[in-house]
Amino acid sequence: MDSTATTTKPLGPTALALRLLGELAETGAGGSNLIFSPLSIYAALALTAAGARGATLQEFLAVLGATSRDELAETVRGLAEQALADRSLKGGPRVSFAFGVWHDQTRQLKPAFRRAAAQAYKADTRAVDFRQQPAKAVKQINAWAAAATNNLIDSLLTDGQVSRQTDVIVANAVYFKGRWQDPFLKEYTVDGKFHRLDGSTFDVPFMRSWGREYIACHDGFKVLQLPYKQGMHDRFSPPPRFSMCIFLPDARNGLAGLINTIASSSSSDFMREHLPTSLVKVGKFRLPRFKLTFSGDMSTVLQSLGLQAAFDEEEADLHDMAEGERPLALQSIVHKAVIEVNEDGTEAAAVTGSMMCGASFVTHAPVDFVADHPFAFFVIEERSGAIVFAGTVLEPSPTVPGEKRLRRTRVHANNVDVRPVQWPTTNENANQGQPVAVRNPPASSDGQHSRAGRLPGLRLALVPPSDGPQRLSTHVRCWCKGVPPDLYLVRKVMDVPDTSPTYP
């Protein structure tokens, strides 16, 4: 029979995510980036709770915001089957959500726990030799983590984290790779100054956009929402809808206050209430590329949130997990996460492992969104409200030497659309650039012009040489507000007749 909690109203995965963000950001106030998966931590704790009883179970339920173990299993199963369903074969995000349980071969899992792990959590359960071959067990667990995260995370544990006293390890892995619904063009990326919290600056590559973006303006901060490509729709069930949300404080040193506002909100719908609801025209738009990694023990943070008995060798009650008389207690909650955000989209992964050991405002005017100072970000599934990844960017990825020159020399034919035009060359216009075509920007799947076409004042011009049309050098330039013209220079040499040439 399942036990139930007698605590206050459950808050659920979203509230846990925001509380974790507040605790982790405060812990890392020294100035480091942060990336973690609240959903992975929630899922690993939920599966661990399936083996808890009594006061220990009550603490799990209170921290996770549920009334019973059945509710936890139903929540995780619903997310796995719907919100986190892989959509890569239909053109949407590639998503992987996996569980693993490893127990020492001398200590079997209890039938009820094994059944819950297999049926409700779809977990792989395997016996290993922690007693005699702990290093071999670590290799097996790390191989599972690498496979579950597409090798983005190649290891979860080190040899020193597993001992002969280890009895059970429970793990969850989340992998996400999504392409922006409207990708940024690498040619538009420029270097600029990013302001650290201490006031210093350094150069980072900024992605740029023109036209319209999903932006909401609130008191003291702005929110940018960047949707990921969804892929083909099913007839009877709408697909998951993923997006990245950037919470940017107005003040350069305002991130701590903004995170405190988010984490301490009395509303569990804070995220949903502050997301943009419509496209707005942007003025200045800059968003840095970034790649972040995190590896650490979440035990202290979770204890500060109220999960304490499970870590106490005398008070922990995890007797529903494994056979044997020796009591189990949580030794650590290991969490690793990686995320990379660039012009194409996002790739992210996280692994969480718990180890048990035997005791011994809206505007229609152009809006600037310049993320040149620290900000918070969330990767969410909009229909369920699940926060898959969260973190803070205090120092984005710096500019790579030589990258600026590479960007300036890269030319994509897709950016130039020269249509047939008749232009007789005369003495009067031989040294003048004559406009010959205006690009018709391509439309994206949502009917909006893609970022490739969001260039105000785009104009192509034909510039003949001064020495006559025998050997015509055609220079095609694009003039755009705020865009260096020489970035879009295309040179083509062609032989043409002496008079009245037709340019293809």
What does it look like?
Strand 12 and strand 13 form a beta hairpin. The protein has three domains: 12-179 and 289-360 and 382-391, Antithrombin, Chain I, domain 2, CATH 3.30.497.10; 186-288 and 398-404, Roll (Alpha-1-antitrypsin, domain 1); 411-503, no CATH class. Helix 1 runs antiparallel to helix 7, helix 2 packs antiparallel against helix 3 (54-64) and helix 2 packs across helix 4 (69-83). The radius of gyration is 28 Å and the shape is elongated. The model is unreliable at 1-10, 411-449 and 452-504 (pLDDT under 50). It is built from ten helices and 22 strands. By secondary structure, it is an alpha+beta fold. This is Serpin domain-containing protein.
Write a compact overview of the structure shown:
This is Serpin domain-containing protein. By secondary structure, the protein is an alpha+beta fold. It is 21% helix and 32% strand.
Essential attributes:
single chain; 504 residues; alpha+beta; 3 domains; six-stranded mixed β-sheet; elongated; disordered C terminus; Serpin_dom
